[in-house]
Amino acid sequence: MKNKIGSYIKNNYIALLASFILPITILVIVYAMNGIYFGSEQTLLASDSFSQYSNFHASFNNVLHGEQNIFYTWYGSLGLNYWSFSAYYLNSLFTPLVFFFDNSAMPDALYVITLVKFGAIGLSFCVFATQTFKKMSWWQYISFSVAYALMGYTVAYSPVIMWLDAFVYLPWIILGINRLLKGKSPQVLFWSYLLLFLSNFYMAFIVGLFSFLFYLVQLFIDWKQHKKSIRSYLIAALSAGGASMLTILPTIMDLKNNGESLETVMDFFTKDTGIWDFIVKNMVGTYDTSKYESAPFVYIGLIPLIFCCFYFVSKKFSLRSKIGYGFLLLLVVASVYIEPLNLLWHGLHAPNMFLFRFSFLASFIVILLGCYGFEAYETEDRNKLFNICLSLGGLFIAAILFSNPKRYNYITNETLYVTIGLLVTYLIFLSVYKTKGRLEKIAPILLLTLMLVEVFFNTKGMVAGIRSDWGYPKREYYTEPYLDIEQLVDGTKAENDSLYRLENLDEVSFNDSFNYGYSGVTMFSSIRNRHSSAYLNGLGYRSLGTNLNISYANNTLLMDALLGIKYNISKEEPMKFGFQKIGESGAYSLYENQYALPLGMLTDKEIFGTDAVKNQVDLFTHLSGVKDIGIKIIEPRQVALENTTVTSSGKEQVYTEISPTRPQTITWSVYVPAKQQAYISLYPTDMSYMFESSVETTVNGVTRESKISSTGQYYNLGYYEEGTTVQVTASFTGAGMVKIYKPDILLIDTVDFEKAVEAIQEKGVSFQTTGRTASATVDLEEDQVIFTTIPYDAGWSAYIDGKKVTMPTFKKAFLTLEVPAGKHEIQFVFLPQGFKIGAVLFASCLVVFQGFAWYERRKKKSEGLVNE
To answer: Which of the four pLDDT bands, split at 50, 70 and 90, describes residue 483?
Structure first.
């Protein structure tokens, strides 16, 4: 086996090396043209890369350096199942490259990882091509490998870095199937499937479904010959699927507990699609958007497209193969336009932007058949190629002439000229291709050159589209505040030996806590604890709809105390009672909350009552046992309006803008009594109408901006030792009419608040958290309930004095435990639900498959049929 691999590499090393290097080189050049390179001021952290992937990769770096557990993170909001989280975001074989970077250099880490992944995609297809298409030269292997690596989909969706691994494994999986069909070893298929399933469960579903359909097509094409492979295919596929349960099963269970419901099919046809989408998106460099109302990204090059068409019109290929592959391609195309099929590819859940995530399958089919067609082409087929090129050119021109200019306004002159120009050039090239003489020797080099030029222009168009669509943020947005925030966070870690929570009022992104390593509230992630987020939304931390986001901003002192928010980092004075400045670094200051409560609190069984603790006041009152915690509601006095008029309808206030070029500004006057913490409540009557609206509040010269739909309703007016009249100005943008409930003022009497906090502190339970455990010692005079602010997850187990006990569920939001009287050691231990079963399946399926592979090899060897 080693000799065969060595011989293969020796015979193909130029093609393999070039297929790896050329995609990287083209990307490096295109990125550099956009001001992006290693250490550059611009970064490639477009779209969610800035807020999510950079921070999540930084968190994995923390894991690699022993600063975080692989199963659970205390730094994903209040706490999160990290094993399932990684199954979507971080399980790539390339992710460990972050080990060689500091977290402050994540823009460079993601730049390097992105380039390496694209190189691996090209290399993967080259291995597939050299094993599949025997009549090509290595020049042609390189040409098609680069085209595959830099197809429209991969570059346009390159900001979603965790999806790129699927394109590495797809060619290997198809290669593995082809090897099985020829009676060869199933090892390639098994390991390709396993790596795919482990890397990203989402893309694994799409590729896994496609590869199964691909295998069925092979059975249809030649049932008599290929039926012999059924047993090997099923054992390899099922064994790989079973072994992948190490990550897939815990993730499925997590999604079942915390995931979104399946979509209901409302329409048969997909909205916002056009009949010219596939024609236009096969032109060079056509980028519309990766947000909403986009057409599918299917471009993979004109040569693959030309020869794919040739495959279907040539008599050199069997009718059954044309029907089989034609059906597969038609299914993918139809899935764009038929909503039930569209949803099926997405796991019955509609995508949030980055639409038609399966559309790369059409590209793969096109280049696969294109390679078959190219390999079979001879000079006598020249007329067919001419007709195909002319037909494609006619379709491109027709699309421009007859398509809706509003829908297809992204077709630029450069796109048109380059596409038609290349099509004409290819037409000329094909007219002399395979002509005897000197041209025959340079034809492969000429083709490679032309295809590289085409790929370059397409990549250039895709990157320009991303820049226009999302923007490539400057490095300073990521790195400028980094050292200052890191210094303050590290200072808090040095002062504490148990878990505490911290929030940055001037956050860099919604996932700072992953990066800097602190426990907070704010988070933006597809993998999240929906039950705890939903309950926290009821407690004032905004987390709407599917709970993708949860935000700390605009809540009250009550929740700061209850969740143990011990520190705030802020550029401005936070104006909060009990928060004292204890440090500063650069533009940021650190404030310590004197009234932060521990992770656990003693209470009684009444907390499980149906009507108990519906909001933060109820919860605070119940835990403290203090009936009057000093909450009062008063009305503000409106004193000024600018660029708006106001009308009232019951409890609703409607502010209508006068000029759309300026914000609507309302000013209220509020008298805040002595020793009171004050907030103004600004809450939309229709959240969907105000979803994109933002508001800036200005109090005592301090201005803070909030997006109404993603932050809480209580905008801080400050704490005052003496009675003070305060003016607050709110400037609304993003909606022509502002529809909110009539604003009121929430006052918290800090004297009563302090008494209530002290009452809870007397019943506080301090937990020590290490890795995936939280432990405490209690000495109780009577049976009580320990209430914690650790998010509930089915993976948690509770132990009292080393004995496992059942846990009651508190709204599926927080861990609670009934503890009998006496002195006890309490321990919560986290292990992802399903992990043990998954680990057993992983080991057993590996053994089963390798046993089967050994048996098959031995059997063939005895029959003299060994064929690796």
So the answer is: very high
